């Protein structure tokens, strides 16, 4: 099975490492505008194949033409967030970049599933769906998988637990309008409040916890000027669900077409992910407040999409 990665920056290279160490594919292509950088990364990765005992993957750097036959293409390329810059300020330039990449891929890998990590990831995913022939079920935003992982880790650290014992989602936009649907959270099968009461721990203050989740990425960015480990692991979690046909429920960004009363907007909601891409968008019974938060997130992204459309000519 062939996988291509577009973008040889920190995230793209980290994703390649996951793919190689876990033997998730038998052929890996890395493409970057800086062809020398992509070539160097592939040469470097090649030297690891004598030392690891996972599948021996065929490695190649190249152009879009080399992506032909890819089952999955992971797109991490785009303008990078600068100190003091918001994801929204990247919207216009990265919408143009990602649509341009998808149109190139459309010519050589029309049957591929596209997985996006380029910010603002939900917005660029929506523009790719609307401006290419790829069906919506095969164009996926990495969405709030990382945000949800951060939520699990923050809760677990405060309670001295393995994060995998904490269950919950962050939904909506991967950004400032995201929210936690508290009705869907639990720890070891108990509500968060019930767990805290049982072990004698203070209950979580919901607004404070949500803010901590939202600030987690900025805290990392302030210290190292990028974030790569968490997003790479999140991408690989989605990749695993696709390549191994898992049927996993993940909070990825999908195009809503009537679900939750929303249209023409890519947002993170629980979705069933398997070898087809998005097998099904799941309509969870959110509370009235949670549904209102999802609609608020949608309105924000729809307004931003209108601004980008006006400036770019994209649909």
Keywords:
18% strand, globular, alpha/beta, 3-stranded antiparallel beta sheet, 315 residues
Overview of this protein structure:
This protein is α/β, with parallel strands linked by helices and 315 residues long. Helix content is 43%, strand content 18%. The chain is built from nine helices and eleven strands. It has helices at residues 10-21, 35-46, 91-108, 121-131, 145-159, 192-199, 206-224, 229-243, 288-312, and strands at 2-6, 27-31, 58-62, 72-75, 113-116, 139-141, 166-167, 186-187, 248-257, 263-274, 277-281. It has a six-stranded parallel β-sheet, sandwiched between helices. Strands 9-10-11 form a three-stranded antiparallel β-sheet. It has a two-stranded antiparallel ribbon with strand order 7-8. Helix 3 (91-108) crosses helix 9. It is globular and about 55 Å long. It starts with a strand and ends with a helix. The model has no long low-confidence stretch (mean pLDDT 96).
Low-confidence stretches: none
Number of helices: 9
**Looking across the biggest beta sheet, what order are the strands in?**
3-2-1-4-5-6
Average the pLDDT over all residues and give the rounded result.
96
Structural class: alpha/beta
> What composes the largest sheet?
6 strands, parallel
* Secondary structure tally: strands: 11
Radius of gyration: 19 Å
Give the overall shape, derived from the CA principal axes: globular
């Amino acid at each position: 099975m062939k996988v291509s990665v577009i973008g040889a920056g920190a995230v793209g290279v980290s994703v390649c490492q996951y793919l190689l160490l876990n033997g998730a594919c038998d052929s890996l292509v890395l493409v970057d505008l800086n062809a020398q950088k992509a070539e160097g990364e592939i040469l470097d990765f090649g030297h690891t194949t004598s030392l690891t005992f996972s599948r021996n993957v065929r490695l190649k750097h190249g152009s879009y033409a080399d992506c032909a036959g890819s089952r999955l293409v992971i797109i991490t390329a785009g303008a990078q967030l600068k100190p003091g810059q918001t994801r929204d300020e990247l919207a216009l330039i990265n919408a143009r970049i990602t649509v341009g990449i998808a149109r190139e891929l459309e010519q050589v890998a029309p049957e591929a599933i596209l997985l996006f990590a380029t910010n603002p990831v939900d917005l660029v995913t929506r523009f790719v769906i609307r401006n290419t022939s790829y069906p919506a079920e095969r164009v996926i935003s990495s969405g709030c998988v990382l945000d949800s992982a951060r939520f699990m880790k923050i809760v677990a650290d405060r309670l001295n637990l393995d994060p995998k014992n904490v269950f919950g989602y962050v939904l909506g936009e991967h950004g400032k309008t995201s929210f936690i649907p508290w009705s869907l959270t639990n720890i070891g099968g108990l509500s968060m409040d019930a767990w805290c009461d049982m072990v004698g721990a203070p209950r979580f203050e919901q607004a404070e916890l949500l803010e901590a989740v939202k600030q987690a990425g900025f805290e990392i960015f302030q210290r190292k000027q990028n974030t790569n480990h968490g997003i790479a692991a999140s991408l690989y979690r989605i990749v695993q669900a696709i390549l191994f046909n898992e049927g996993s429920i993940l909070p990825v960004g999908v195009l809503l077409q009537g679900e939750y009363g929303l249209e023409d907007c890519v947002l993170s909601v629980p979705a069933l992910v398997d070898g087809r891409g998005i097998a099904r968008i799941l309509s969870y019974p959110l509370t009235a407040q949670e549904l209102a938060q999802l609609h608020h997130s949608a309105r924000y992204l729809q307004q931003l999409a209108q601004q980008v459309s006006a400036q770019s000519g994209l649909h």
